[in-house]
Amino acid sequence: MDEFDVIVRLMRPLVTSAEALGLADDAALLSARPGHQLAVTKDMLQADVHFRANDPAEAIAQKALRVNLSDLAAMGAEPYGYFLALGLPDGVSEGWLQSFCQGLAADQQAYGIALMGGDTTRTTGPLSLSITALGWVPEGQALTRRGARVGDHLYVSGTLGDGALGLRDLASPAHARYLRPEPRLKLGVALRGVASAAMDISDGLVQDAGHFATASDVRLVIEAERVPLSDAVRHAIVQERFSLADALTGGDDYELLFTAPANTCLPANELITCIGRVEAGEGVQVVDATGAAMVLARAGYRHHF
Amino acid sequence: MDEFDVIVRLMRPLVTSAEALGLADDAALLSARPGHQLAVTKDMLQADVHFRANDPAEAIAQKALRVNLSDLAAMGAEPYGYFLALGLPDGVSEGWLQSFCQGLAADQQAYGIALMGGDTTRTTGPLSLSITALGWVPEGQALTRRGARVGDHLYVSGTLGDGALGLRDLASPAHARYLRPEPRLKLGVALRGVASAAMDISDGLVQDAGHFATASDVRLVIEAERVPLSDAVRHAIVQERFSLADALTGGDDYELLFTAPANTCLPANELITCIGRVEAGEGVQVVDATGAAMVLARAGYRHHF
User: Fold this and answer.
1) N or C: which end of chain A has fewer CB within 10 A?
2) CA-CA distance, B134 to A68, in Å (whole number)?
3) What is the pLDDT of residue A270?
4) For A37, which residue in chain B has the nearest alpha carbon?
């Protein structure tokens, strides 16, 4: 198999839009959508760092796509298309690549997007991939991390900790959440004009909330006992295989964290939980049920070199 | 050093446009340029495959950027901005990263572009990077590979073979061309409305001409003795350290290959050489000075897995 086999036989069927020029040109050509801005995000995922090299190929493809779609959700953007760069180790099989592309095809259907371009190369290291995802957002309506105001409430979607538990425990129901996070795209769109600020949680609630607080120049207070947990995470905590602190600081959640004024009418179509408030000051304070500050050994996941 | 040090101290100074939201958000937000389309290209480069791991850090950064800018040049697009995904091996030094970012900063100045977003991660393998470059092209004026017509002349910019010689021979003046290709951006813009089709040559003239012929559904005839060669390449051929076939099939040229009708007035501001013609049929025929077909052992570079 060479790169042109991969492009022609496996990648080209993923092209469903004219912008890609059939993957036969040097670049894709996108026309503007009147009255909209284009949200662009780019993530890189490395085997043995962001996923296990022996995770199912479909899941690796879908996770790479979905972590980017989660960024679009956080901006309130509707997904439009994506570019894929794939660094393939020697000896990768055609079957593996077929499964990888089946994973992409399924998510293209699910999220209404198409492959628009990219690059297929060899690497002497482990599998390495990068996706650039594009989405449209009506002019001036994008959500950013900057608008949280003192007095706003702090909300989170879904449940937290499942990604971290699922990484550790392949037998847990949470493992499916680790493999295939669910980007909160509908919620992101519904929060336009509602949320004062938003971001997605990828590296742990507390650490990401710190970036959020800095961007908005406020302090975020998180009431730990209000943080929503799945049955799988509750069960693991009871069994002492996992802790509340793990749920507050573990990565791979891909839920939305957002703020809204206290009297706002929130969209009813998604699981949303109020987990705290915005105060004057800086940084993040996590408090327990008594209101006392909790001390956490670490705030979240970060790459060290 | 962790990823946030790298982002705040080294990457953020490369942001000079509002679209990036200071690298502090989940995605960049781009407004449309009226009357223009957005050309988007994404390449991936792996250490030990696309460059030597011990090439100068500035040159690695610039090559990664320039191979993408070369794709924009081939579309007739003006560069606008780029996204960088960086997979850093353990133990990468801050000095190396500073040099890498200095290389980017110098090219940002040279090409009038800015960093708009991206991702910094760890890898357990060698250095891995991906750039997504964006450029503007007036609506309907993009150059593609599809418009070559029977009777058109076939042209190439610059000289060929320097990248391949420079990879092999670090002492050759061609080594600088291997390290830092020169994207033909001004020529690309000048060819709008002039060239009938265009592409950039990255994997070897003959192989890339094959893709070009397929896209335009024509045959390309290349007259080998008309292919422009630098003094360094001529010298290496005389010394039998390199061959004309190497120049016709070696990668890393990043020159433009384009076609134009025979009576077209070509832009005078760049080195352009007519190297052949477009005929009815398919594929590529390389002919020698007598008009006899040349047989080449290989057509160009392709990744095998």
Assistant:
1) N
2) 18
3) 67
4) B31
- Closest by alpha carbon to B132, among B197, B87, B55, B79? B79
Q: Where are the beta strands (DSSP E) in A158-232?
A: 197-201, 219-223
Which 3 state secondary structure label does DSSP give B58?
helix
B276-294, pLDDT tens digit by residue? 999 999 999 999 999 999 9
Q: How far is it, in rounded angstroms, from Cα B192 to Cα B178? A: 27
Q: CA separation (Å) from B49 to B54, B55, B165, B247?
A: 12, 12, 16, 19
Q: Report phi then psi at A282, rounded to 5.
A: -145, 165
> For A194, how many CA atoms within 13 A lie in the half-sphere containing its CB?
16
- Give A134's contacts in chain B (Cβ within 8 Å): 40
| Shortest alpha-carbon distance between residue B288 and chain A (Å) | 28
Nearest to B65 by CA among B116, B20, B125: B116
Rounded to whole angstroms, the Cα distance separating B137 from A303 reads: 37
Spatial CA neighbour of B182 closest among B200, B199, B207: B200
**CB-based contact B118:B84 (threshold 8 Å):** yes
Q: How far is CA B120 from CA A189, B16, B23, in A?
A: 27, 19, 12
CA dist list (Å): B41 to A87, B8, B156: 16, 26, 21
Q: How much is the pLDDT for B31? A: 95
Query: Would you state the pLDDT for residue B299?
Result: 87
Sheet holding B197-201, edge to edge: B197-201, B255-260, B153-157, B272-279, B219-223, B283-287
Who's near B46: CB < 8 A, 6+ residues apart? A87, A121, A122, A123, A124, A125, A128, B126, B127, B128
Kindly state whether A25 is in contact with chain B, defined as any CB-CB distance less than 8 angstroms.
Answer: yes
Quick one: pLDDT at residue B270? 67
Q: A23, A4, A9, A7: which is closest to B215 by C-alpha?
A: A23
Considering the domain A153-287 in this protein, what is its CATH number?
3.90.650.10
pLDDT band at B5 (very low <50, low <70, confident <90, very high): confident
CA nearest A86 in B: which residue?
Answer: B44
B123/A49 CB distance under 8 A: yes
pLDDT of residue B271: 86
Nearest to B77 by CA among B159, B226, B170, B198: B198
Say if pTM beats, i.e. exceeds, 0.90: yes
ipTM: 0.94
CA distance B268 to B262: 16
Length reported for chain B: 305
CATH topology of domain A3-138: 60s Ribosomal Protein L30; Chain: A; (3.30.1330)
CA dist., res. B248 & res. B251, Å (int): 9
Task: Output the six-digit token pair for B259.
Answer: 């076609």
Domain extents in chain B: 3-138, 153-287
Q: Which residue of B has its CA nearest to A133?
A: B27
